[in-house]
Amino acid sequence: MAQPPTKKLKTSISSFSQPIKITVGPSRTEFHIPKDLLQSEVSQLPLLLDTESQTIKLPREDPDVFVLFATWLTRGSIELCFEFINLDNLNVSPTQDTKAAAALKTQRLDQWHQLVNAYILGDLLGSVAFKNTVMDLLVDKAQVVAKENKMAAEMQHRSLSLIYDSTEAGSPLRRKSSFSPR
Hints:
The structure is a single chain. By secondary structure, the protein is an alpha+beta fold. About 50% of the residues lie in helices and about 10% in strands. The protein has 7 helices and 4 strands. Strands 2-1-4-3 form a 4-stranded mixed sheet. Strand 3 and strand 4 form a beta hairpin. Helix 3 packs across helix 4, helix 4 runs antiparallel to helix 5 and helix 4 runs parallel beside helix 6. The chain is globular, with a radius of gyration of 18 Å. The two termini are about 30 Å apart.
């Protein structure tokens, strides 16, 4: 898995100066992240940053997805984020409880959609290491789903438009998936 910047970034006094304010979503949820962390990982920072106000505005992004990036950037793992839909410890057999199995299926689809959106955010920010981390999780989750049941077609249907509308033609997410253009 790709190393997050917190594991490799050397700090200095300037690392703890005024952070960059990032407003996310229509509700303008505020995040404050040290500039050196953002510079180390966000290649689109010069295009996104309003240098006068030291603010980045992401009005169309979801704060629950952005917090995955912020957690990865500052803590080293998406899975340390409370907003991450983590289902790895759930073990429901469809024959045991059909309601629980249906709920798990819905949660798996929500998790997949969350990770696809995280990848798209990484693309917008220009964070290759974050996209690699998300891609690793997508591959892991797809393998779990393939073993559990035949939910892949539903995952494809739910994510196909989003992936093709939000990524470039040569995107690794398009190439790595089994999706085909509409």
